[in-house]
Amino acid sequence: MASHGRIVITGASTGIGEACALCLDALGFRVFAGVRNPADSERLSRAASDRLVPVQLDVTDAQSVRSAAAKVACALGDAPLNGLVNNAGIAVASPLEFVPLDALRRQFEVNVVGQVAVTQAFLPSLRRGRGRIVNMGSVSGRFASPFLGPYSASKFALEALSDSLRLELRPWGIHVSIVEPGVIATPIWRKSLLAAEDLLAEMPEEAHTLYGRAIEAIRRRVDNIGGIPAERVARVVAHALTARRPRPRYIVGRDARVAVALSYFPTHVRDWLVAKRI
Fold it and tell me: What does the pLDDT read at residue 118?
């Protein structure tokens, strides 16, 4: 499929999405890379071949999704779409007791509702090409951490959507995979930390009194966070799009495998281990 495959990727401005766009472009795919602004579009174009086509796409904006789908359809003509990579995402970090509800809604608009909106827009073309869907989940969709409740909840939801979609689209031979990375060396965690600090600044003093010590411990951990290269996740996405028998789930990274293993521990043991770390 790589020599003539046509793929749409959301959230391709940075991190995993950018790595996937460049990896698939290098493999010979025609990539339609969803970006948020012209600057990202220009930078991505300079790094790729002329097969890669940046597309302005905000997954939370219905008009933007329709416009992107129309642009891709126009570029494809009679050719179908072979793959969709739902990668766009954000991470909201906050104690659930004090998380602003607007921030919680934004978390689900981007990570859940936006994924469904994009999938609905491109499914007719995918069905004609018996294409594939790859959803970018997270190990946080298997194992919820304290102070990442909004993000984990959105990724748990994406796990459920992927399972349902995989079965619903089975009659048309459309494979649905979900990729579950651990910590990746991308800007998302730094961005989420900065956003969390903004949220904390707006919270009442009570929040700092109750959770300040634990939040500071997590902040130190994020400051020292490493993570595997985003290119490693991109290679997994390429496998999901090209393998004769793609897997329903891909766990990426040693820490992800450890977290998945911990999820099978008795709940009280798992809770003790997590609490001890913070």
Answer: 98
What pLDDT does residue 213 have? Answer: 80
Does residue 1 lie in a domain region? no
Token pair belonging to 53: 């086509």
Residue numbers of the domain that contains 250: 6-277
Q: Which residue stretches of the chain have pLDDT < 50?
A: none
Query: Cβ neighbours of residue 245 under 8 Å, at least 6 residues apart?
Result: none
Can you give the pLDDT at residue 110?
Answer: 98
Is 56 buried (19+), middle (13-18) or exposed (0-12) by CB count in 10 A?
middle
Question: Is 211 one of the annotated active-site residues of the chain?
Answer: no
Residue 159, in any domain of the structure: yes
Task: Specify if 63 maps to a domain.
Answer: yes
Contact yes or no for 164/138 (Cβ under 8 A): no
Q: Is residue 150 part of a domain?
A: yes
Amino acid at residue number 151: Y
CA gap 219, 223 in Å, rounded: 6
Catalytic residue among 151, 211, 250, 264: 151
Nearest to 83 by CA among 153, 1, 187, 163: 1
- The SS3 assignment for 182 reads coil
CA distance 60 to 217: 33
User: What CATH number is associated with residue 15?
Assistant: 3.40.50.720
pLDDT value of position 196: 63
> What is the predicted pLDDT for the residue at 3?
56
How many domains are there within the chain?
1
pLDDT digits (tens, 9 = 90+) for 54-83: 999 999 999 999 999 999 999 999 999 999
